[in-house]
Structure formats: C-alpha cells, structure tokens
Amino acid sequence: MTSEVDIHFEPINRQQAGFLNSKSPRVLFSGAFGAGKTIALCWKGLQLSLDYPKNYGLICRKVRATLPQTTIKTWFDRVCPKEIVADYNKSEGMLTLVNGSQVLFGGLDDPLKLGSLELGWAGIDEAIETNEDDWKMLEGRLRLLGVPHQIFAATNPGPPSHYLYRMFFKENRGDAFQAASLDNPELPEDYRVRLAEFEGTYKDRYVLGLWKGLEGLVYSSFDDKACLISRFEIPKPWLVYVGHDFGDANPAAIFYAENPGTGDFYAFAEYLPGAIGRSIYDHVQEFKRITAGYNVVKRVGGNHTTEGETRQGYTAQGWHILEPKYSQAPKYQILKVQGMHRLNKIYVFNDLSNYLREKLSFAYEKKEGVLTETIHNEAGFHLMSAERGVISDFTPETVDSVGRTTPVNYMDRRTGILLRR
After folding, report:
1. Does the pLDDT of residue 13 top 70, yes or no?
2. How far is residue 363's CA from residue 203's CA, in Å, rounded to a whole number?
3. Domain spans of the chain, in order of start
4. To pair with 339 at 20 to 30 A between CA atoms, which of 15, 150, 308, 346?
C-alpha cells in the first residue's frame, strides 16, 4: 500500500516567495539574522529535485565541516520528509530520493571532489564565505542533461566590495531578494528585543539586511571578507594569548592562538557571560575549560589604577593575569590593533557572534555630520577592551624589498601618533 506525503512550504515573507519561485539561472537570497535564508535554500533544492526526477543537485558551504549542524540539520529536521528518502550515505554526504534524484552535501574546500560533477542545480549556504572563483567553479558544473540549470545562494550581507554585491546589485546578473530580520513574523519576541540592541554596521547588516561597508568604524581596516573564517580545530602546539576585561556585570575574555609559521593570530573563543552571578573561581574554571590542552603563554587585562586587586584575585585561583602593556594609553592600544588589521594579521572565527557584534558597531561618534575622536558608548564594548589589551603587545610587521622583516611605522591621521615599537 502506497502512502501519500503532503509536501508543502508556506513562505514567511515575499522575499522568500520570490526566491523560491525565481527561474533565473542565478538567484541570491540576502538576508539578516533570522530572515529564513537557510530553510528557503533547502526548500528550493528539494523543489528542483522533486520537479525533475533523476536530477542531481549540490548543497554546499565553503567548509564541509560546517554543514552537519547547520544546513544539513535544517534539511532533515524542517524540509525533507523521511518518507521520500530512498537512501542517505552520511559519510559521503549523498542523499537519494524515491524519484531517483540525488543531493550531495559538500564543501568548497575540496574542489577536486567537485571537479567531475555534472549538476542540475547548486545551492550555496552562507555564500559570503565564498569567493568568485568558487562561484565560477560551480557554474562550470551545471551540465546535467534534461533539466533546467540554476545556481542559487543564501547569505548574510557583507561589504559592497564583495563579488556577490557586484554580481547581483551592480551588474544585475541574476535575481536578488533582500530581507530584514523583522520581515520574519515568526521570530520570538525576546529575540526581537535583543536585535533592537544592535548598533552601527552590525545593525545595518544583520538586522536590516543591508550591504554596508565599515565607514566610521574604529576598526574599518578589519577586512571581514578575508579575515572572517570558518572554524577549524586549533593545533595543540600553537601558543595561546588571552585578553580580559573585568567587571561584576560584564566580565569578558577573548582567546587568540598564534600560527607559529606565519605569526597570524586567530580569535577562536570568546567569553561574555553577562550578569549571572559567577565568582572569579567560576570564571577561571571556564577559562581553563576553553584552553584545555593548550599552552597559554600570556593573560592580560584591567587598567593601571584600580584593577590590580582584581588581577590578584584571578592569580589566587590559578589564572595569573598581567597588566596590559600601554594600559595608560588606550588610544595607542587601539592603534596597534588597527595596524594588525591593516596587514590582515588577525583572523576571526565567524561563530564569535558577540565579538563580531562589537567589532562591527565600535564606531566614532558623529557631531553635525562629522566624525569626532570620541567612541560611542566605549565602556560597553568589553571584548574590544579585552582585545586591545592583549593584541597591543605585538607590533605589526611587513617584509621589505630584500626580504627582511621590519616593524610597520605609520602616522595615524586622527591622533598624529606614529605607530612603532
């Protein structure tokens, strides 16, 4: 006896509906947090697989390891009924439907595996992580006979310099649909309240869904297109550095690992528990859990005048914290971090949401349309404070014309300070 399965998806907004119904060879769904991007991407892939039996599609992200807990979970939990699945080879990432269509879940970090594919469609989740070569490579695989060919993507917005913005919004080479967070009527009320607290570029991109650059930001030299990366396991031999910002209500810590081969730093963990009544002992236990198995060579935090006692409290619990270098010159500390960003020496895992919220909204105040030297609500940016304390220990370097590594010296136009050791 054959049972019927009702497969139906009701778009939550007109942007989702437009994305799903578009027949354009290239389609982009650009949206803020909670705008329904990933589920729309999965439904579009399933729709093409059901409408055209024996179709062959690809669902991918930049790094394959990021798929299982994100896109694949959405596919099986919210989109694809188990009754239409004939087989799923989890190790190969190959799904076969009862009508003969197949869907491969893969990563663009293994181009050799993708090189011989003959696809009917390709869907890229979090396409902001990709580059134009990735996109072109996938377009070159759309050659399965007897089906329409379509490449589509879902993504958070980024800077206007990104190839996706140029392709879809400047050159109009496909259909583009944009959605803000509040275009999703199903968002919980407490989530909406949290979104209302976002500011600056972080709000523009991740709440309003706008493609905005970093104008006015303190760290406008942070190239998120190049330095915002997917998580990987930090090798155990890499040295770890930790920056702290003290406070009973909002203690914060940022954890960096240094690649010994390049001298690049990788922000791999953040700590911002909020006001939950933890003691210094509790904080230290969490720090030790985060850094278990690694060699922590330096921990810095606090100011010069009033927080020495707090540092002693952490030391008493087995977590020795030093006073940061240049602790009496926070503007100079910021200059040092800016210098590291200019050379793309700081890489950040893209799941550090609190760090990114601060980094992309840490901005100079405007007065009568002109930027001032005052940072808006600077005291509220605890991870930025922790970061500048630990990163300012290092001097940005470059390589001269004969291959010698030398410190970078440059004059900051805002303060007139020459950055050098």
Report:
1. yes
2. 12
3. 14-194, 224-419
4. 308
Q: Does domain 224-419 have CATH number 1.10.10.10?
A: no
> If we measure between CA atoms, which residue out of 172, 133, 176 comes closest to residue 153?
176
Condensed to tens digits (0 to 9), the pLDDT of residues 336-355 reads: 999 999 999 999 998 888 89
Please report, for residues 53, 119, 163, 343, 421, the alpha-carbon distance to residue 303 in angstroms, rounded to integers and kept in the order given: 65, 58, 42, 27, 21
pTM: 0.64
Structure tokens at 139: 């377009």
Q: Which of 71, 68, 18 is nearest to 46 (CA)?
A: 71
3-state secondary structure (DSSP) of residue 365: strand
28: helix, strand or coil = strand
3-class DSSP state for residue 190? helix
- Strands of 56-61's sheet in order across: 85-89, 94-97, 102-107, 56-61, 121-125, 150-155, 26-31, 175-179
The highest-level CATH class for domain 14-194 is alpha beta
